[in-house]
Amino acid sequence: xxxxxxxxxxxxxxxxxxxxxxxxxxxxxxxxxxxxxxxxxxxxxxxxxxxxxxxxxxxxxxxxxxxxxxxxxxxxxxxxxxxxxxxxxxxxxxxxxxxxxxxxxxxxxxxxxxxxxxxxxxxxxxxxxxxxxxxxxxxxxxxxxxxxxxxxxxxxxxxxxxxxxxxxxxxxxxxxxxxxxxxxxxxxxxxxxxxxxxxxxxxxxxxxxxxxxxxxxxxxxxxxxxxxxxxxxxxxxxxxxxxxxxxxxxxxxxxxxxxxxxxxxxxxxxxxxxxxxxxxxxxxxxxxxxxxxxxxxxxxxxxxxxxxxxxxxxxxxxxxxxxxxxxxxxxxxxxxxxxxxxxxxxxxxxxxxxxxxxxxxxxxxxxxxxxxxxxxxxxxxxxxxxxxxxxxxxxxxxxxxxxxxxxxxxxxxxxxxxxxxxxxxxxxxxxxxxxxxxxxxxx
Length: 443
Prior knowledge:
Blueprint: H1 3-23, H2 28-42, H3 46-82, H4 84-96, H5 101-113, H6 118-136, H7 140-157, H8 162-170, H9 175-203, H10 210-222, H11 229-252, H12 257-265, H13 268-281, H14 288-321, H15 324-333, H16 341-354, H17 357-368, H18 372-375, H19 379-389, H20 399-407, H21 412-439
């Protein structure tokens, strides 16, 4: 099957998905499933392979993120019910002021993104960001996008997250060097994306999800006594500390008893489970309401993100394991582009097709590794170009796209006008700064 038809079929599938959801008001889960099955048949995979990839993509995505979504949603529900989300929000506003809450979100998410997948950062912090949006009358189109993008940038650029870590290893780049320059390139990308999200806030108004602000409204109406700020922060901070410590000990003490213990405690599932019980403790009682009813509310809230995210994984598997990504990557390699553009474009295309920045960064590095000498590129420049391209372009085949869309209360057309172009901005700034460093002969 020709490469041209593969590209056309992919573009038509995305258009059909947007039309089914926005024009015909079909639920996203059914729309994605229809598009996945139709695209698989259209690009010649046949019924069996199309179904196999649908199942494996769904299962593979939920294997890594499903329990995290469940626990994160339950913990968020409990933080709302106890008033902890309100307590945290008021503490943040007192600390930075209403005008700067978006910058506080950007800094927090960027820090967390170094150790935690961007989708998980959204799941952990969305109740707080939604409550901030409610109190400060800010749009979730900007704040939700910023929450995801700030984490996404550092997760794409800074080891020890999986994509950059693997890319540095493939390119035989020193880990300390890759961390340092990944952080340096992340700074302008986060700053420009933060400014861009300010523009999105003014252009698109999106209310926070009602379930995230209902507790805040009840607290205002009842003048309820709130938990302490420290106690409220703890269920969120402790998992972050454990996850970060697990990454650091795995790098520094790999195979040791300390690393193994921290690897277990710092697994997102285990650390979020601990955080969930800490959140329950804020209620000051251990009755059926806390231990069962609030958990059931959280489970109900997690169903939609889990199903839609899993089906997004089906679409990603179809594109990643089908012929499209390999065909386009080879076309780019043979295109005669300027050397530094080749790793950027390969990573961007693979990221867009597969929905995974991890796969995009790693694939770009793997394809470039044998060629960097002949192309006259340094391993560091190649690494940064791959990590910049790996941020382009989030569309509805990405779990992070769907998690952010659904939890930020955005519809698909709004998400395509906010999250998608924001990833173009972040990738372009990262790559532009990389070109500047090359032009100045710094890297």
